Automatic annotation (TrEMBL):
It is an enzyme of class 2 (transferase). Supplies octaprenyl diphosphate, the precursor for the side chain of the isoprenoid quinones ubiquinone and menaquinone. It comes from the Bacteria. Pfam families: polyprenyl_synt. This is Octaprenyl diphosphate synthase. GO terms for molecular function: all-trans-octaprenyl-diphosphate synthase activity; metal ion binding. Keywords: Magnesium, Metal-binding, Transferase. Belongs to the FPP/GGPP synthase family. The keyword Metal-binding applies. It catalyses: 5 isopentenyl diphosphate + (2E,6E)-farnesyl diphosphate = all-trans-octaprenyl diphosphate + 5 diphosphate. NCBIfam families: PRK10888.1.
Amino acid sequence: MIATDSAPTSGAIDFDSIKNLTSEESQAVDRLILQELSSDVVLINQIGHYIIGNGGKRLRPMLLLLAAKALGEVGDHHLTLAAVIEFIHTATLLHDDVVDESAMRRGKESANAVWGNAASVLVGDYLYSSAFEMMVRTNNMRVMDIMSKTTTAIAEGEVLQLLNCNNPETSEAKYLEVIARKTAILFSTATRLAAVVSAADAVVENGLAVYGQQLGVAFQLIDDALDYKANSEELGKNLGDDLAEGKPTLPLIYAIQHGDERQAKVVVDAIRQGSRDAFNEVYEVVKATNAIEYTERCADRAAAAAIEALQCLPDSDYKRALEALAHFSVQRSH
């Protein structure tokens, strides 16, 4: 039994107990992923297994499975789409690391650091193609329509983020637009697809879509906050990566807006230069302006909105697990 309150709290969430609710289904999804990763092109197998087997919470497939169980039973199409969601997510990671020139992913060398950019991009393309090949098997045009719009939105989000790089004039609204398209949309699609395959009514489908969207926003906000408060071992990437890439994330946007002239200039210059060298000085400004606390408050509001959206579901352990994941999204340290 997983107990939660109606809004994010300070109590620790047992993530393993949530995972256990879908352990059998998750194992079936993992088997399907390994089966679909099989290729006679050796490099595809190597990189695919490396990135998919390289840790990760499998959060997005879990969301789909929990939502499906909250609506009844998990069928074969749910399992297929959970694998599809993970393939799409993994493809975006491969492409992200190339665009961002990242050397670390989940505490290990990124695929592009091991095999190079070209191989990482092409295997990411393979995973995208495989995902669409798998979703066709559901023989459901609504599913394909949702997934095609999702991948388009993710690509748009990536381009918008690229346009914002090294631009300290990026507004909070523009930043939120990027994370809505780039990150939150796949959370929303996972929970929406559970409703579509389960033939739930429009109220439930829309409620689950809102839940996933708000959860994704909360998740990304905390990711951005952790870049200035976690340690690299916990986070699984180098601290200051966002700064080094010139990304104007919410902590930096807030610090510019609420710091004095000197403090604002420190952050503005660091974003324009896209260098980790100024990380310590930027960190002090972020800390002094309470930018982390502001970012966390925004994440708390998004998590509360996610929980509110679950009113469309009947009470069950699975609904409570979805609520608990909203709490987890804002309490995690990595």
